[in-house]
Amino acid sequence: MTTLVLVHGIGAREPGRRPAVLRLTDAVAAANPKVQVQLCYWGGSFGAELLADGASLPAGPGQAADPAGADLWALLDDDPLYEIRWLATAQPPAGRRPPHLPTLGRVLAATLGEIVTERALAGDQELSRILVAAGLDDVIAGAVTVVLDAEPTRAVLREAAEPAGELRSALARAVVATAMTRAGVFGQPLELDGRTVAGIVAVITDRISDPATLVPAGRRAGLGTRFGLGAAKWARRRYERFAFGVTPYAGDVMKYLANGAPLRELVRTSIVDAAPPVVVLGHSLGGVACVDLLAGPDAPEVEALITLGSQAPYLYEIDALPQLRFGRQLPPRFPRWVNVFDPMDLLAFAAGRLFAGHASDRVVDNGAPFPRAHSAYFSNPEVHSLITEVLIKEVLS
């Protein structure tokens, strides 16, 4: 009888996530009757938790963490056209306009395109100055083109009718949000404070607006308030999910790096107590603990190591792995290591180039977007077959 010791990761440490792990263990047991799967469960004892019920968080449950207006920008940071899409579904059809006059949408598009040309900016010192100060001067014209060419914008402009103050300000916000995205790095918008952003939006809105045609306060409140309340609720939910949901992910990693010895000792005990021969399977942070343990002194004997979606290679490369400093090689006794990762899993890293001779990488397709891709290994038949392959090659043959 061979024992497969499974050390779960962060995503499976809550009891409600256990069925995902069981899908893998059931599949392995069904394919390999001579394999006994033993779960090394560490979440209840060594997982991070907010010991003071979130007293360290800037805002507690049910409280909006964002200042006024930031709730809308939380949406626009993710999708600069979010407000435009919303208006396209909420805006009533435009009334008929005399055929000899251009549609309001064409007027708005032409005006918006004109104010960011080099000639216009050269004569508009205020707009030019704030764009340069914010670092958006080189991307603003392209942002206008992107916004005006987008189908949601075309749809909303086709139905534009006066008064259109809400649409004018939404166009300005879409342009600024797009410009910030184009000026940012690593897929993140340029980090500008809310006051600066609001100032740029106000000036652009002013340039494409006639104050006399702005939506009256009563009507503006009807449309804007409905959207604003929805955005505020979304932002509040997002904050609560982030503030309280981030603890198992970032918190567990930080806790392990600060004091990982108890978790490593639990894994060691699970391996020593298992009936040999032993193959160890570690997912995510569980894989980090396994690599760290087996690279350290007095490591228990195992036949092979399989990691799924592991951050161990990354932590080694940034010199953060507690028992294996960067530059040190894995000890000769380190078992064969099969490192499995899905390219869509942003928390999974390659080991083969760092640990040649010990680690080999196997790429799988979990068929899921991130973050779901990080835990989808458990239900992926391709992963089940790969584990069976390692067991047969290393132990059962």
Descriptive notes:
- With 397 residues, the protein is of the alpha/beta class.
- The protein has two domains: 193 residues, Alpha/Beta hydrolase fold, catalytic domain (Rossmann fold); 167 residues, no CATH class.
- 51% of the residues lie in helices and 9% in strands.
- It contains 16 helices and six strands.
- Strands 2-1-3-4-5-6 form a six-stranded parallel sheet, with helices on both faces.
- β1, α1 and β2 form a beta-alpha-beta unit.
- α3 packs across α12, α5 crosses α9 and α10 packs across α11.
- The longest helix is centred in the middle third of the chain and has 42 residues.
- The chain is elongated, with a radius of gyration of 28 Å.
- It starts with a strand and ends with a helix.
Percent of sequence in beta strands? 5-15%
Return the CATH topology of the largest domain: Rossmann fold
What class, by secondary structure content? alpha/beta
Low-pLDDT residue intervals, each spanning 5 or more residues: 61-68, 211-226, 241-247
SSE blueprint and pairings:
Elements: E1 2-7, H1 18-31, E2 35-40, H2 43-46, H3 70-78, H4 82-90, H5 104-115, H6 118-123, H7 125-134, H8 140-149, H9 151-158, H10 165-183, H11 194-207, H12 217-258, H13 261-273, E3 278-283, H14 285-295, E4 304-308, H15 312-317, E5 336-341, E6 359-363, H16 381-396
Parallel strand pairs: 1-2, 1-3, 3-4, 4-5, 5-6
Helix pairs in contact: 1-16, 3-12, 4-9, 4-10, 5-9, 7-11, 8-10, 10-11, 13-14
